[in-house]
TrEMBL record:
Pfam families: DJ-1_PfpI (PF01965). InterPro entries: Class_I_gatase-like (IPR029062), DJ-1/PfpI (IPR002818), INH-QAR (IPR052158), TAT_signal (IPR006311). SUPFAM superfamilies: Class I glutamine amidotransferase-like. Residues 55-216 form the DJ-1/PfpI domain. GO terms for biological process: regulation of DNA-templated transcription. This is DJ-1/PfpI domain-containing protein.
Length: 266
């Protein structure tokens, strides 16, 4: 595609999006902050929200799984009145679990001590084990959780919430291969693409972060915005094999799936 045609295509998309979004706001679609102020209640209940956009912090750490972070990001970054920021112990590029992709954290944990929404992705390999022993990250998760409207995880991110001591007695889900771990941290293993319990929302494996993100988008605004974002992302899965959950396949496929995940995350 030529540069001129690409600029034209982007201009059409921006124009269409601007007209549609402007019409939605004029028709009463909330800007995000009002709805979010009455969202998930927890330890921070009753505290006044700081003015400005709803701040969503997506935690990055060495060895996180890319789609765990990017799925919720794409679901939330276009919600009116919401600002999504990638954060890490230090600002800068962070390697994913496959070690061949980086995503930039634009702020450090110190710069975002009290996000309104916290998204904790899962990971693989040595990076996942390391983060479970990283006191700086675990302390940040605990402190931030006291003030969040929503505390969320994707896939093995539930293990991080569990290690931080936030999952005891909480109905939750995670990747199908890790669900026994939920019992170890005192959570209540609950099947589902995502599970909401108070202000904690946990998503199942990897791609389920998109489902959770779209639902969270509706809670930070309203269902109309959630529906529109699902369409904007053209999130209409038709998987080619129908083997997307362990109950729909055989033992050999499950074993191979785990091997492929392990081999890709040294």
């Amino acid at each position: 595609m030529s540069d001129e045609r690409e600029r034209s295509r982007r201009g059409v998309l921006r124009t269409a999006a601007g007209v549609t979004l402007g019409a939605g706001i004029a028709a009463g679609v909330p800007a995000g902050t009002a709805a979010a102020a009455t969202a998930g209640k927890g330890e921070g209940e009753g505290e006044a929200r700081k003015p400005g956009p709803v701040e969503v912090a997506v935690l990055l750490y060495e060895g996180f799984t890319a789609l765990d972070a990017v799925g919720p990001y794409e679901s939330l970054c276009r919600v009116p009145g919401v600002q999504v920021t990638m954060v890490a112990v230090k600002a800068g590029p962070v390697l994913t679990d496959t070690r061949d992709m980086e995503i930039v954290a634009t702020k450090s944990l110190r710069q975002v001590p009290r996000p309104d929404v916290m998204v904790i992705p899962g990971g693989g390999g040595a990076g996942m084990y390391a983060v479970l022993e990283n006191t700086r990250i675990l302390d940040w998760v605990r402190r931030a959780h006291r003030h969040t409207l929503w505390t969320t995880s994707v896939c093995a991110g539930a293990a991080i919430l569990g290690k931080a001591g936030l999952m005891r007695g909480v109905p939750a889900t995670t990747h199908w291969a890790l669900r026994d771990y939920l019992k170890e941290v005192g959570a209540i293993d609950t099947p589902g693409r995502f599970v909401e319990s108070g202000k904690i929302i946990t998503a199942a494996g990897i791609s389920a972060g998109i489902d959770m993100g779209l639902y969270l988008a509706s809670r930070l605004s309203d269902e109309r915005v959630g529906r529109a974002l699902e369409l904007a992302l053209e999130y209409d899965p038709e998987p080619p094999f129908g083997t997307g959950s362990p109950g729909k396949t055989d033992a050999g496929t499950r074993t191979l799936a785990l091997k492929l995940l392990a081999d890709a995350a040294p």
